[in-house]
Write a structure and sequence with these properties.
single chain, about 260 residues, alpha/beta, 8 helices
């Protein structure tokens, strides 16, 4: 399938590992120019090297930024003013009891998970509307629908992303600009992989056994009954970034393996 991305420039925030790296790789594979982003120059260069080993002709740029800083987010938009596809993927999470979450943590989570997307979308939406083409994606989570009791602050920010995406989509009426949210479920990212391996060592069992137990006890509603791969999530992001997805706008699309027990 020709995704018609060869003349597009994409910015993927938080793209040095996990879902972000997989999305950046998928877009690069389709011929888009991709701006790789991470917190440090070393991480950005490492991610670029990983992608170029798979796709030597990949057209890649890099930028480092701390998304808890308004100034650093704004610098990205100044450095790269011409972006066709914005993938708001950067995010933080941390299991913590609700009563132990201080105001400072709430503010930090909103700065990174929500306001980074607000700032970048605000910067790029006008030019997208002017040229009558653009894509804005928010990588939210099924935790935005089913708020996890072990990290309520994270779930609330993910709900906010979904609302933000829908709200911005309303501003694109009658144009070829679309704004959508993707809601991954349990995904085998870098952090999850390490967690599974550590737990397997502690219990002296295989990682596959740990995975089966997790879905049996912690995520019994999953229809997939395994962690999704980052590539499976990225596949949807690549499609939504392309001109082929022109009729999908203002949507919250789940890649959750059926964890959310709902038809809608």
């Amino acid at each position: 399938m020709d995704t018609q991305l060869k003349d597009k420039t994409a910015l993927v925030t938080g793209s040095t590992a996990g879902i972000g790296l997989a999305i950046a790789t998928g877009l690069a594979a389709e011929g888009a120019q991709v701006i790789i982003n991470g917190r440090t120059k070393a991480r950005v260069e490492e991610a670029i090297s990983i992608i170029q080993k798979k796709f030597p002709k990949a057209n890649l740029l890099g930028v480092e930024a701390d998304f808890s800083s308004k100034e650093e987010v704004n610098k990205i938009a100044s450095k790269f003013p011409n972006v066709d596809i914005l993938v708001n993927n950067v995010g933080i999470f941390e299991p913590k009891d609700f009563v132990d979450i201080p105001d400072e943590d709430w503010i930090r989570f909103f700065e990174v998970n929500v306001l980074s997307g607000v700032r970048l979308s605000r910067a790029y939406l006008p030019s997208m509307l002017k040229k009558n083409w653009g894509r804005i994606l928010f990588i939210s989570s099924e935790s935005g629908i089913q708020i996890p009791n072990e990290m309520i602050h994270y779930g609330v920010t993910k709900s906010a992303q979904i609302s933000l995406g829908r709200g911005i989509a309303e501003l694109t009426k009658g144009t070829n600009v679309t704004v959508n949210s993707i809601l991954p479920g349990p995904t085998r990212s870098e952090g999850v992989e390490g967690f599974l391996e550590d737990l397997a060592k502690q219990q002296n069992v295989s990682t596959s056994t740990v995975e089966k137990e997790f879905f049996k006890n912690a995520r019994p509603t999953s229809l997939l009954q395994r962690f999704a791969t980052v590539e499976e999530v990225a596949n949807l992001a690549v499609y939504l970034s392309s001109p082929l997805s022109s009729a999908t706008n203002g949507a919250a699309l789940r890649v959750d393996g059926g964890v959310v027990k709902s038809a809608f």
